């Protein structure tokens, strides 16, 4: 494909880092946004060492100004802007009786707010540049069906599906597509933390915690971040140009629609 520019939030590890590396191989120049600069700088350096074009940006997606500034920096640095991947998120594992206002507010600010700010910033830039654009949001298998102890996390991921459908309708007239990807159980630092928390609450070992999420996968194996990155590659590329408002499951066969 032609050289294009993508910004990926939460790109310092796990799924975000895998998406960055896959889009690099797809020919994208990349702006990588993360709260911890050292993490996104490390991924950007790996891409540069592979003859890629990447820059690291420090910022918090819960802060609207940070997201708008990151999009502007990406445009100023690369001279164009084509794809926004709203990947950053947190995943609290909190039984319903233990949900506090602080837990709920933090997840809402990052997962839901960060997605909305990313859509706003990207669509504003696409309109300014007067060309089509693609917005790709991170939902989840937990945004398709309920999972125990994930009331807060699941509520944000269900919300992102709704935001995706709504903004796809709003932005279609500008030739801006909005889609989402819905991973299942992916071996990442965040997923390991979730499994450990679930195991700790039950007084069980880590392996038991991971098994609670993995036991119902039809393909009988956990996902790698690269599996998810392949789905995002499709959404970022030309083969998905006629798709908008969709949330694609990439979960190995956990939820069937």
From TrEMBL:
Which keywords describe this protein according to UniProt?
A: NAD, Oxidoreductase
State whether keyword Ligase applies.
no
Q: Which reaction does it catalyse?
A: (S)-acetoin + NAD(+) = diacetyl + NADH + H(+)
The biological processes this protein is annotated with in GO are: acetoin catabolic process; bile acid metabolic process
Q: Name one GO molecular function term.
A: diacetyl reductase ((S)-acetoin forming) (NAD+) activity
Major enzyme class = oxidoreductase
Q: Which InterPro entries match?
A: 23BDH (IPR014007), NAD(P)-bd_dom_sf (IPR036291), Sc_DH/Rdtase_CS (IPR020904), SDR (IPR050259), SDR_fam (IPR002347)
Binding residues annotated for NAD(+), in chain numbering = 13-15, 60-61, 87, 153, 157, 183-188
Q: What is its EC number?
A: 1.1.1.304
List, from the UniProt record, the residues annotated as the active site of this protein.
Answer: 153
NCBIfam families in UniProt: 23BDH, PRK07231.1, PRK08643.1
User: What's the family?
Assistant: Belongs to the short-chain dehydrogenases/reductases (SDR) family.
Q: What does this protein do?
A: Catalyzes the irreversible reduction of 2,3-butanediol to (S)-acetoin in the presence of NADH.
What is the recorded name of this protein? diacetyl reductase [(S)-acetoin forming]
Lineage, uppermost ranks: Bacteria, Bacillati, Bacillota, Bacilli, Lactobacillales
């Amino acid at each position: 494909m032609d050289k294009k520019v993508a910004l990926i939030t939460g790109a310092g590890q796990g799924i975000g880092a895998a998406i960055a590396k896959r889009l690099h191989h797809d020919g994208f120049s990349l702006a990588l946004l993360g709260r911890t600069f050292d993490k996104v700088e490390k991924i950007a350096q790996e891409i540069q060492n592979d003859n890629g074009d990447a820059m690291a940006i420090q910022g918090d997606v819960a802060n609207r100004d940070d997201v708008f500034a990151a999009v502007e920096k990406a445009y100023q640095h690369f001279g164009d802007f084509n794809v926004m991947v709203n990947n950053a998120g947190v995943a609290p594992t909190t039984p319903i009786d233990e949900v506090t206002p602080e837990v709920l507010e933090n997840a809402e600010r990052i997962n839901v707010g960060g997605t909305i700010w990313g859509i706003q910033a990207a669509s504003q830039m696409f309109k300014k540049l007067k060309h089509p654009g693609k917005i790709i949001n991170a939902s989840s298998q937990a945004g398709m069906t309920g999972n125990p102890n994930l009331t807060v996390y699941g509520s944000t991921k269900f919300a992102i599906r709704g935001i995706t459908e709504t903004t796809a309708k709003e932005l279609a007239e500008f030739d801006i597509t909005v889609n989402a990807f819905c991973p299942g159980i992916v071996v990442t630092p965040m997923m390991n933390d979730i499994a450990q928390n679930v195991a700790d609450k039950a007084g069980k070992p880590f392996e038991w915690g991971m098994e609670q999420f993995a036991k119902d996968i039809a393909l009988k194996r956990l996902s790698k971040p690269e599996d998810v990155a392949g789905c995002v590659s499709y959404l970022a590329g030309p083969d998905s140009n006629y798709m908008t408002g969709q949330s694609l499951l990439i979960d190995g066969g956990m939820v069937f629609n």
